[in-house]
Amino acid sequence: MPGEVPIPSAKPVIGDAEIAAAVRVLRSGSVVQGPEVAAFEEEFSAWVEGRHCVAVNSGTSALHLTLMALGIGPADEVIVPSFSFAATANAVRLAGATPVFADIDPDTYCLDPSAVAAAVGPRTAAIMPVHLYGHPADMPALRSLADGRNLALVEDACQAHGAALRGKPVGALGTAGCFSFYPTKNMHALEGGMITTADAGVARTLRLLRNQGMEQRYANEIVGANMRMTDVAAAIGRVQLKRLPEWVEQRRSNAKHLSAAIRGVPVPHVAEDAAHAFHQYTVRIADDRDAAQQWLSGRGVGSAVYYPTPIHRLKPYKGGAWELPETDRAAREVLSLPVHPALGGGDLDRIAGAVNSLRERA
């Protein structure tokens, strides 16, 4: 309606507590991979059943370093979804390995285990499922497949803080898990990433890789990089982590409200044994998604498309003979609506009303 404030598709939280934490660290003089990073790692570990946690400077770095720490390189292939952000495949390429794309389950948008099984070859070293939009991938099926072929199973949990499957949190379901703390995620650290693993040896290698190959200064053990997290980022992350439970519950409540009120378009599916974190609330628009997005914008409802171009159709990855029909269909149809914790009941009713009015376009 005219005069109403538009509802943004995402709204990062940067409040007084986050600002105070950053200022405290800046005044301390210890600003890079110091006590705040160590505390953040310890506190995050409690979220993933006590796994070792290694903080880095981004979710992409988390994926990249994890593959390196697992010894995955030029002779190897890693099975990934094409329906994801490019960082999923970029990390594989940065490690020197080759991404192999498999199709998705049309309900969850996560890797289809049967498609993964068909994609396994003699060079396959790992499977890297993405818990897309905050819905866990079918980890039991993928775990069975990985174990049967001695493959690493790396969770791309960059969108899934607070999600769980059969009562177990994402990040504690695979060989390793990778999280992002970009500002639009369910929690953030302005920027940053976290790697989780039950393997102490892998964790030590990750700590070397993020810090120029050193555990002690000037005693370089391996070739590494500078992918450290700052203490400012860690301090902000610690504040956000404390509020993550309430924020995830609010996202779930908002999603439930929307799903009960929306008519005429498919709403998000949640598997029976899954706890969806609702990083995104994604519907399908089968008929002219772009026009529908413009219609919603005209009614003050923000939305976004994640992702309009599958990775296998991006310039750096073109050329493979990929047949991914569910991936291509999802890229044509998906539209993510606001679900963030800042929404009130009136906002949710406006969003649902705008979606329900799409039929009026005809």
From TrEMBL:
Origin superkingdom: Bacteria
Transferase among keywords: yes
Cofactor needs: pyridoxal 5'-phosphate
GO molecular function, one term: transaminase activity
Matches recorded under Pfam families: DegT_DnrJ_EryC1 (PF01041)
Entry keyword annotation includes Repeat: no
The entry's keywords: Aminotransferase, Pyridoxal phosphate, Transferase
Classification via SUPFAM superfamilies: PLP-dependent transferases
InterPro entries cross-referenced by the UniProt entry: DegT/StrS_aminotransferase, PyrdxlP-dep_Trfase, PyrdxlP-dep_Trfase_major, PyrdxlP-dep_Trfase_small
Similarity comment text for this entry: Belongs to the DegT/DnrJ/EryC1 family.
The name this protein goes by in its record: DegT/DnrJ/EryC1/StrS family aminotransferase
